[in-house]
Specification:
CATH superfamily: Aldolase class I
Helix content: 25-40%
Shape: globular
Number of helices: 12
């Protein structure tokens, strides 16, 4: 598939980003159903790594947000990823924010989105996972419904954890999307501590029920102060959380000031987030001192960018916007770059 993407990209970029997203997935799904995607799958070096007690075939994963409903896992599995993270999923289906809600900034290899956790709800999500037959490493990213007040957020996260637990290799608690009003307030130490206490209790009960332990990770924003990053790091260790994902999209606009769409509300992703994401990874690595692993995401547009994240302290990396600009070839490039000594 990666050979054809440079030819398809101008056509896709002429379309509205959300329309292009749907068309690209429809094409991938069709190619997978016909067995063509499997034939075109890249031959990659074996580079397995064990993180959080889970064996990953390689260090390069798909970030949450691209396959919100776990509807395209079998197609995505042909692109060379070591793991896929699907979601964000919420207990009830919700349409997300009004369209248009995705914007490309090609001059900076960037995107702005304010999708707002649009998804078909956790029951449909689980049905998609079961139907997919995907047997690789699957992270499942969970959130709260837009109309659930923060004081009841733990109910939503707990309901999702319960529903997805038996299908997940790990579960990510998303408290850092800028597109659900008030969600980032859950990153405050008091709110996060209360939420994680509930989730750890539920995790323990589910581990007994299912006879296996599924790690919990927390995804944080790039817009936190240095003190807040350190505070969260210490809290995650104290709560026994198994991993941290750094980072989500940014609300900062200094890197794209003056460009068309730069003032659209939402989260900015892609190349402009790379430096800040890597800085947060470095801060976390210093504060955690190896106590738990970091998954690095934000602005990976090349194999060298992936290596930079690992050098900063990430055990695994994830891509999303880079896939839109570079195509599936980016996955193989990152896997090969990280397999080098």
């Amino acid at each position: 598939m990666h050979k054809f993407y440079p030819l398809a990209r101008p056509f896709l970029f002429a379309l509205d980003p959300e329309t292009a997203h749907d068309l690209a997935f429809a094409s991938l799904d069709r190619a997978t159903a016909l067995g063509l995607a499997q034939l075109a799958a890249p031959k990659l070096p074996a580079a397995p790594v064990t993180v959080m007690g889970v064996r990953f075939p390689n260090r390069v994963g798909l970030a949450a947000g691209l396959d919100k409903n776990a509807a395209h896992l079998s197609g995505l599995a042909t692109l060379g990823f070591g793991f896929l993270e699907a979601g964000t999923v919420t207990p009830r289906a919700q349409p997300g924010n009004p369209k248009p809600r995705m914007f490309r900034l090609p001059a900076r290899q960037a995107m702005i989105n304010r999708l707002g956790f649009n998804n078909g709800g956790v029951d449909a999500f689980v049905a998609n996972v079961e139907r997919s037959g995907y047997d690789g490493v699957l992270g499942i990213n969970i959130g709260k419904n837009f109309d659930t007040p923060n004081e009841r957020a733990a109910d939503d996260y707990t309901a999702c954890l319960r529903a997805v637990y038996r299908h997940a290799s790990y579960v990510t608690v998303n408290i850092s999307s800028p597109n659900t009003k008030g969600l980032r307030d859950l990153q405050s130490e008091a709110a996060l501590g209360a939420l994680l206490t509930r989730l750890k209790q539920e995790q323990s009960a589910l581990a007994q029920q299912h006879g296996r332990h599924v790690p919990l990770t927390v995804k944080i924003a790039p817009d936190l102060t240095d003190d807040a990053v350190r505070g969260i790091a210490h809290l995650l260790v104290a709560q026994g959380i198994e991993g941290v994902i750094a980072t989500n999209t940014t609300i900062a606009r200094d890197a794209v000031a003056g460009l068309r769409y730069a003032e659209e509300t939402g989260g900015l992703s892609g190349a402009p987030v790379r430096e800040r994401s890597t800085a947060v990874i470095r801060q976390l690595a210093a504060a955690l001192d190896g106590a738990l692993p970091i998954i690095g995401v934000g602005g990976i547009m090349s194999g060298d960018d992936a290596r930079e994240k690992v050098a900063a302290g990430a055990a695994l990396v994830q891509v999303y916007t880079g896939l839109i600009y570079r195509g599936p070839g980016l996955v193989a490039e990152c896997v090969e770059a990280l397999a080098r000594p």
